[in-house]
Write a structure and sequence with these properties.
Layout lengths: L7 H10 L5 H13 L4 H10 L8 H15 L3 H10 L8 H16 L2 H10 L12 H10 L4 H10 L8 H13 L7 H11 L3 H13 L4 H10 L8 H14 L4 H6 L8 H17 L7 E2 H9 L2 H9 L8 H6 L10 E2 L1
Parallel strand pairs: 1-2
Helix pairs in contact: 3-5, 4-6, 6-7, 8-10, 10-11, 12-14
């Protein structure tokens, strides 16, 4: 077969997946992709992912679908990236799948960028019967007085949550309300939906990680009610955060369960560099060694410019290494925090 710009190995692998009966058809497909702004790199990647595309009829199959997506308003860059990452899209029917799905997404999400983000998050949604579950589930949330702007944002990030059966979706929302969440705080309410929708085994696995660091079941529920997102963190991430706070800062488990917001700042880019700066300042007696938990929380939450001015720039002459510490060039060892 034509190599189509592929390496010999990739061309051979692709040839095993499809046999070109007519090179003219392959040439037409390549010309179509090129005319719609696909780079040579994108064409190579697309053929590697989906060699069968070279067998599809251009005028009756590919051209109408591609034209619809272009007319829909996708830029050449958006279009190329979407198709290369999700070639499955061009296998779907135009009138019965692509047109209704993209129109529905555009109406709900408003911008092409958000439509693409939703599709990348959950590509199989395009082939889903959204009238069966998605639309009723959206309507159900609206009946709970969740503003459509919050529903749209939720959908963009987690469209799969709306694809469950209506009964299951209703059950999750009811459980969220029983746990004390109020739709008057829509962001928290939606966070709670995502967490409660986890499988029992996933919830238990994450709870076990917290409990392994000394939390009780009551602590888990307390932190969850304050920030439901704490149950959406990966088990590995939970472990890294808890290990740092307990073993490096000497905090107690209850200190974190009472302040779960501390779990949602970047450990590597914010918390550790700032604690390293504080460690150096304390060792040079430039700040008091009895740093309280409340002060730590304020310092972690502090804006970037304010932290730089107060703790880095102000002390740079007396302790030049604070800049390196802030840039992550000095390893953190330990910092004692008083409750």
């Amino acid at each position: 077969m034509y190599s189509c710009g592929l390496s010999a190995d990739k061309a051979l692998a692709a040839s095993k997946k499809c046999t070109l009966k007519r090179s003219v058809n392959a040439d037409s497909v390549l010309a179509l992709l090129t005319n719609h702004g696909f780079s040579k790199t994108q064409i190579r990647e697309l053929i590697t992912r989906d060699p069968d595309i070279l067998l599809r009829r251009v005028e009756k199959n590919l051209q109408p679908k591609i034209q619809f997506l272009v007319d829909f308003g996708l830029s050449a860059t958006q279009f190329g990236e979407l198709i290369v990452s999700k070639p499955y899209i061009l296998k779907l029917g135009l009138r019965n799948k692509l047109v209704p799905t993209f129109n529905f997404l555009k109406e709900l999400l408003h911008t092409n960028e958000k439509v693409i983000r939703a599709i990348r998050s959950c590509p199989w949604f395009i082939d889903h019967n959204f009238e069966k579950n998605v639309i009723p589930n959206i309507s159900f949330l609206q009946k709970q007085r969740i503003p459509i702007c919050h529903i749209s944002k939720f959908f963009m990030h987690e469209p799969r949550r709306f694809m469950v059966k209506v009964d299951r979706f209703s059950e999750v929302v009811t459980k969220v309300k029983e746990l004390g969440f109020d739709s008057c705080s829509p962001s928290m309410f939606i966070e709670a939906i995502s967490a409660v929708a986890l499988s029992q085994s996933t919830w238990e696995a994450k709870s076990m990680v917290y409990r392994s660091f000394g939390w009780s079941e009551k602590d888990v529920l307390s932190a969850f009610r304050k920030r439901p997102k704490c149950m959406l963190m990966s088990e590995e991430k939970i472990g890294r955060f808890m290990d740092f706070f307990l073993n490096k800062l000497g905090l107690k488990p209850s200190h974190i369960s009472y302040r779960p917001n501390l779990l949602f700042y970047s450990l590597e880019q914010r918390i550790i560099p700032r604690c390293t700066v504080l460690q150096i300042l304390a060792s040079n007696s430039l700040i008091g060694k009895d740093l309280t938990l409340r002060q730590l929380q304020q310092i972690v939450q502090m804006g970037e410019r304010q932290f730089l001015e107060i703790y880095v720039i102000k002390h740079q002459n007396e302790a030049p290494e604070v800049l390196k510490a802030y840039q992550g060039q000095i390893s953190f060892s330990k910092l004692d925090i008083k409750a």
